[in-house]
Design brief:
The chain is α/β, with parallel strands linked by helices and 460 residues long. It folds into 2 domains: 207 residues, GTP cyclohydrolase II (Rossmann fold, 3-Layer(aba) Sandwich); 212 residues, Dihydrofolate Reductase, subunit A. It is built from 15 helices and 18 strands. The strands form 3 sheets. Strands 13-12-11-10-14-8-15-18-17 form a 9-stranded mixed beta sheet, with helices on both faces. Strands 1-2-3-5-4-6-7 form a 7-stranded mixed beta sheet, sandwiched between helices. The chain has a two-stranded antiparallel sheet with strand order 9-16. A hairpin with a 2-residue loop joins strand 1 and strand 2. Helix 5 crosses helix 6 and helix 10 runs parallel beside helix 11. The longest helix has 15 residues.
Length: 460
């Protein structure tokens, strides 16, 4: 059953808000004007804006996000929902355009049921109940939010029409009923995560929320079909970025690495903590979903215990390939887990391999001197694994680069300076800068990260 929020109620309960204070707020997305409001019930709200003044209001409708307060997502970074990431994406979109407003509505915690009631609903969800049934099991409404405060704040700012940043049609309908014209509604490009996939699926199936941007285009790419005329926005961006990989036949080798601006993947102690908040997370997941095999070195497995699985976008997990001459990787690591994902564990002839491996793990033995990238690719090609992602770490990606085995390289730089640590891309260079390696490039922004894609195949 699809649940529709009551539009009449939204219009029938107007809120009276009072402008109380105004200041500026510097953020990582730039500096915003910050205006504070109090409604007639004593609840305090804020509006963060850029480029909103009397002159600007004469132009097209600004980008507007009406954001419901979510302590767990906004402040604690919870992945049970996508609220924090939606807020961050909205601020980034407004900053990129230089004009827009985020109306942060307090009192909307848990779709209006309150923080503690939301935690009780979470506890029911832990037992397998979806987000809709959890609320009703507590005797609470599915969605108790009202948007009168948000509408009055927008009107106070002189905004009568908006381009709404939301995947919720009920929010659009409520604002329209309250006198705010929604000339466009745009879903924000936030990827689902394994932790919130069920929650978001329920909202789409039972609360009319939109499918994620570019979903149809992504499904086509997974099927190896490049959309001929993708819709503007996320679908067009996905097609532009990954179309070549989706339709590739034969062998195609892609390298991927994220490092600091000064070229390190971890500190000298081995701490790779800046990877935990990686802006290119969704990009990496999509690369995995489009390839047949993902290659990683033993040092990366030991440092990060990565699963190499596709977790936060639709798609199947690729075959895992672990290069581990000394068989240092233990049975307890995630890459050797009994999770149904095939794994090739490539070790030296004389390496001692632990007993009790899952049936999904195949041990491939090579002479120590035969771990060259081309030899590894021949092994994968013989198994029908033509599209290969070399994911890490720095030594492994660098070896494939130096061997001329990479068709493309995605090198993502995070805005940190490590100073001294475990190096990222390193290879034998040339004495003359004129002989430095280069290729046609494209650049993508992933949050604060900058990803440069080198197309080495185009230079051959």
């Amino acid at each position: 059953m699809s649940i529709k929020s009551p539009r009449a109620d939204a219009a029938a309960v107007p809120a009276t808000v009072e402008r109380v204070a105004e200041t500026v707020l510097p953020t990582r997305h730039g500096t915003f004007r910050l205006v504070g409001y109090r409604d007639d019930g004593g609840t305090e709200h804020v509006a963060l804006m850029q480029g909103i003044d009397d002159a600007a209001l004469a132009g097209p409708a600004p980008l507007v996000r009406v954001h419901s307060e979510c302590l767990t997502g906004d402040a604690f970074g919870s992945w049970r929902c996508d609220c924090g990431e939606q807020l961050d994406a909205a601020l980034a979109a407004i900053s990129a355009e230089g004009r827009g407003v985020v109306v942060y509505v307090r009192g909307h915690e848990g779709r209006g049921i309150g923080l503690l009631a939301k935690l009780k609903a979470y506890a029911l969800q832990d037992q397998g109940i979806d987000t809709v049934d959890a609320n009703t099991a507590l005797g609470l409404p599915v969605d108790a939010r009202r948007y009168g405060q948000a509408a009055e704040i927008l009107q106070d700012l002189g905004i009568g029409s908006v381009r709404l940043l939301s995947g919720n049609p009920a929010k659009e309908e409520a604002l329209e009923d309250l006198g705010i014209a929604v000339v466009e509604r745009r879903n924000l490009p936030v990827s689902d995560r394994a932790e919130n996939a069920g929650y978001l699926a329920t909202k789409r199936a039972r609360m009319r929320h939109d499918a994620p941007p570019g979903a149809d285009a992504w499904e086509s790419l997974l099927d190896g079909v490049v959309p001929a005329a993708p819709a503007p926005g996320e679908a067009e961006e996905l097609t532009h970025r990954y179309g070549y990989l989706a339709q590739a036949s034969g062998q195609l080798v892609v390298g991927q690495l994220r490092q600091s601006l000064d070229g390190f993947i971890a500190s000298r102690s081995g701490d790779a903590g800046f990877h935990e908040d990686r802006g290119d997370h969704g990009h990496l997941q999509r690369l995995r979903a489009l390839v047949d095999a993902v290659v990683v070195g033993a040092s990366t497995v030991l440092a990060e215990d990565c699963s190499l699985a596709v977790e936060d976008v639709p798609g199947r997990s690729p075959v895992r390939v672990v290069l581990d001459a000394a068989a240092r990787v233990g049975v307890g690591t995630r890459v050797l887990a009994d999770d149904g994902v095939p794994t090739l564990w490539i070790v030296a002839h004389d390496a001692a391999v632990t007993d009790g491996l899952p049936s999904s793990v195949e041990v491939v033995r090579l002479p120590v001197e035969d771990f060259a990238p081309r030899r590894v690719l021949d092994i994968l090609q013989a198994r029908g694994l033509g599209k290969v992602l070399v994911e890490g770490g720095g030594k492994t990606v660098s070896r494939f680069l130096e061997a001329g085995a990479l068709d493309r390289l995605y090198l993502t730089t995070a805005p940190v300076l490590v100073g001294d640590g475990i190096p990222g891309i390193r290879f034998s260079g040339s004495d003359a800068l004129a002989e430095a390696r280069t290729a046609p490039v494209r650049r993508f922004l992933f949050g604060q990260d900058i990803c440069t894609e080198f197309n080495f195949a185009a230079t051959r």
